[in-house]
Amino acid sequence: MQEGSPQPGGPQQPDGPPQPPGRRRVGLLLGVAAAVYVADVISKIIVVATLKPDQPVWLISGLLDLNLTRNSGAAFSFGTGQTVVFTAIAIGVIIFILRTSRRLHSLPWAVTLGLLLGGAAGNLTDRLLRAPGVFRGDVVDWIQLPHWPVFNVADSCIVCGGFLAVVLAARGIRLDGTRDVRAGRGEDATAKPAGGPSAEDSHT
Q: Is the pTM value of this prediction over 0.85?
């Protein structure tokens, strides 16, 4: 038997090198972003084709209405009239997320950034392609709840992504999959893999 050949009954070698976790997380980010983007674009196409502006359709009277409106501002009609500014911000957010994804190893952060990326891309498409012109297009909003500005799928995903980002940051979960550990008295804070073994486990 040649030296270095696998022993009978021994552990089998994998067919190929394991896929880097960072690449898998980036794939998840892009998958979530694509799902959000497609859902937002298709829903807007259907709404524009079937609804008339400012003529609500009541699905659940007093709770959920379909109301086609045009928004030149940010999410939930904030900053109306500043379309060019919010277009530049959306482009900046997309570039930032794509650059950040190079060091992404965290599954929760992949979902979070995917929601933000898909939402930003969905509304940016309106600003680039819809009237009154490139970089000045109005965003299509169509979901109306009681005592709440009219919004769309992209807006809701941006809000959910922002909320998740705050929660992950508060819990000390980093983009690379490690977690900040608040040390006890007289000790420095350290970082360990999220869900990894504790210091006590190493002595058992």
A: no
How far are the Cα atoms of 114, 154, 155, 157, 199 from residue 36, in angstroms, in the given order? 8, 7, 10, 7, 40
Q: What's phi and psi for 46, nearest 5 deg?
A: -65, -45
Q: Would residue 180 show up in a list of annotated catalytic residues for this protein?
A: no
Q: Which of 54, 65, 155, 176 is catalytic?
A: 155
Do the domain assignments include residue 113?
Answer: yes
- Of these residues, 138, 141, 176, 188, which one is catalytic? 141
Q: What's the token pair of residue 150?
A: 């009219």
pLDDT tens across 166-191, in order? 999 999 999 988 888 765 444 444 55
Domain assignment present for 70: yes
- Count of domains forming the chain: 1
